[in-house]
UniProtKB/TrEMBL annotation:
Principal location listed in the UniProt entry: membrane
Domain of life: Bacteria
Database matches in InterPro entries: AAA+_ATPase, ABC1_TM_dom, ABC1_TM_sf, ABC_transporter-like_ATP-bd, P-loop_NTPase, Type_1_exporter
Source species taxonomy: Bacteria, Bacillati, Actinomycetota, Actinomycetes, Kitasatosporales
Entry protein name: ABC transporter ATP-binding protein
Organism: Streptantibioticus ferralitis
Signal peptide: none
Length: 596
């Protein structure tokens, strides 16, 4: 079955507005709770980063204090003699502040990057526990957006966010303490305004969260459409639809632009209002400060230092209230990452299940019925009973949609039957480990999948420890050695590099070499000649015959010539049931008990 058709059954139609759905809302506290474990192991570094930045803030207080002395002891009395000492002190403290801030910011970046690395790796590890059909329930492009930009937004919340909050709070204490020390009356007047900041931060934070959810969803749609558009570029060219593809990407981009601008309007309005508040606060200080000056309660330097502390105070206040918008965006991103981590495999390994040992390769299905949870609920396969003796080749044929690829998925346990059993050497696949099934069975899927790596590494993918001689032998067995040797860099040629592309037939022979190298006793070949022209298909027949020789093989094919090479043929009807006339292949379930 081709990938595009599979997508249409598993994922929504691209024109559907639900192309990338909104993930369910998650409260910020829940987000923090869920993602803190990835920060926890760096909590000492978190403390260090916060301490460095807090010390940087403390030394800024000292700088302002020295600035006050400069005014009161040098400028106002016009006494130049005191200049050098104070100026020297200010320069030294400025250098120290710079060093502390640099180290603090570097530590914060280090923690942030490690967090993203760990979380992304954990997500990818989880995604790799899912069978391909489950992965296909989300658009690849959207998954990429979740693994990159959404994870970055979570980071800004749970890792950098923690340092920012702690540093801002500590700085607030330092600057506010210094302001109170200079003039508590003036400080009280200014701090009376703080509830206004708090309430408006809450108001703006909530709105930003709502808008960010939409922006995150739109971001996912752009990446999904981009990925699909580039992956299907050849269809677009062949059907002269390049313009439509560009319009599609632009359309999604414009929707993202609108969503981002709506978020930015609210997110940036708040700091703008804060700037106005800052000026108003400054005017209050000057007004009240002039009064304090007139009654001798404050010096000119003291007043200017107070104003400077106030300016410094606005930094952490802006940072703290800006965090409301960071929280909003992070919470929207977190919802989408949590959604990924909640995808569950329909296939479960029984705890304590033993490995398969010394597999002979007897495959059997007994009374198998299978359906897809994502489908219409009707069975795709019914009453499938078959047996393939060790070393035997069974061809499975039937019309398109009969369930042949579904049978292949059952045989490698990408899914389980709703009824009946699938056994290898008499052991129900549900009673052994997934790793040992995959160790014994090689699936050659319909679409040949190669990596952007050297030809050598592509062949050795299933056995990275293989020697060069073994790799060359596998390529020879697959009739691939000659074309590989003719490439300028031979086995070291990197696919995709300098535009290196292989033909469909060459690609197929490379994947056959990969299967040769694995040398498993059981093979599932899903349409191994599909998509090849007659000449290319003929070229893979001989290597395929060599590959199947002595191995239990289920050969799914529409190719009558290829099916003719099998020891037996099993025909599925359009309704997913075996057609009458199949030679009776008796199977009696899974006689080897591996139950608990
Ligand atoms: N992941 C899925 N979710 C829902 N339905 C699916 C899924 N995969 C396949 N189907 C449906 O199951 C049925 C059998 O599909 P399957 O791919 O097994 O057929 P096939 O015989 O291999 O077809 P072809 O010869 O065209 O490759 C089809 O109706 C298909 O739409």
């Amino acid at each position: 079955m081709d990938t595009a058709r599979k997508r249409s059954t598993a994922a929504p139609d691209p024109s559907d507005d639900e192309l990338v759905a909104l993930a369910p809302a998650v409260a910020p506290r829940e987000v923090f709770h869920r993602f803190w474990p990835w920060v926890r192991q760096d909590r000492r570094w978190l403390l260090l980063g916060t301490a460095l930045l807090a010390l940087g803030a403390a030394s800024e207080v000292v700088t302002v204090w020295l600035f006050k002395d400069l005014i009161d002891q040098v400028l106002v009395p016009r006494r130049f003699a005191a200049f050098w000492e104070i100026a020297g002190g200010m320069a030294a403290v400025a250098a120290l502040t710079g060093l502390l801030t640099f180290l603090g910011n570097y530590t914060a970046t280090w923690i942030a990057e490690r967090f993203m690395l760990r979380l992304r790796t954990a997500c990818v590890a989880h995604l790799h526990t899912l069978p391909p059909d489950t992965l296909r329930t989300r658009w690849h492009g959207d998954v990429l957006a979740r693994l990159t930009s959404d994870i970055a937004r979570i980071e800004a919340f749970v890792a950098s966010g923690v340092i920012d909050v702690a540093t801002a709070l500590i700085s607030l204490v330092f600057f506010a303490g210094a302001a109170f020390f200079l003039s508590w009356q003036l400080a009280l007047a200014v701090f009376a305004m703080s509830p206004v900041f708090w309430l408006s931060a809450r108001h703006f934070g909530g709105r930003v969260q709502r808008l960010s959810r939409e922006a995150r969803r739109r971001d996912g749609r752009v990446t999904a459409v981009l990925e699909e558009s580039l992956a299907n570029a050849s269809v677009a060219h062949a059907y002269n639809q390049q313009r439509r593809e560009v319009d599609r990407v632009r359309g999604e981009g414009e929707a993202l632009l609108r969503a981002e601008l709506a978020t930015a309007r609210v997110a940036n309005l708040y700091p703008a209002l804060l700037d106005v508040a800052e000026v108003l606060g400054g005017l209050v200080v000057v007004g009240l400060g002039a009064f304090e000056l007139s009654r001798g309660a404050l010096t000119v330097g003291g007043l200017l230092a107070f104003a400077a502390f106030l300016t410094q105070l606005f930094g952490p206040i802006q940072q703290l209230s800006g965090l409301a918008t960071v929280f909003g965006a992070a919470s929207a991103g977190a919802e989408r990452v949590i959604d990924l981590t909640q995808l569950r495999s329909p296939v479960h390994e029984r705890p304590g299940a033993p490995d398969l040992r010394a597999v002979r390769g007897e495959l059997s299905c007994t009374g198998v019925r299978a359906s897809y949870a994502t489908g219409d609920g009707r069975p795709v396969l019914r009453d499938v009973t078959l047996r393939v003796a060790p070393g035997e080749v069974l061809a499975v044929t039937g019309p398109s949609g009969a369930g042949k690829s579904t049978l292949a998925k059952l045989l490698v346990r990408f899914m389980d039957p709703d009824a009946g059993t699938v056994c290898l050497d008499g052991v129900d696949l549900r009673d052994t480990t997934l790793a040992s099934i995959r160790q014994a069975v090689t699936l050659l899927p319909q679409a040949s999948q190669l990596f952007s790596a050297s030809i050598r590494d592509n062949i050795a993918y299933g056995r990275p420890d293989a020697t060069d001689d073994e790799i060359v032998q596998a390529a020879r067995d697959a009739d691939a050695h000659d074309f590989i040797s003719a490439l300028p860099h031979g086995y070291q040629s990197v696919l995709g590099e300098n535009g290196l592309q292989l033909s469909g037939g060459q690609t197929r022979r490379l994947t056959i070499a990969r299967a040769f190298l694995r040398g498993t006793p059981v093979l599932i070949l899903d349409e191994p000649t599909a998509g090849l022209d007659r000449a290319a298909a003929l070229r893979v027949v001989a290597p395929l015959r060599r590959l199947m020789s002595g191995r239990t093989t289920v050969l799914i094919t529409h190719d009558a010539g290829l099916a003719g090479q099998a020891d037996a043929v099993y025909v599925l009807g359009a309704d997913g049931a075996p057609v009458a006339g199949n030679r009776q292949r008796r199977s009696t379930g899974c006689p080897v008990s591996r139950g608990p």
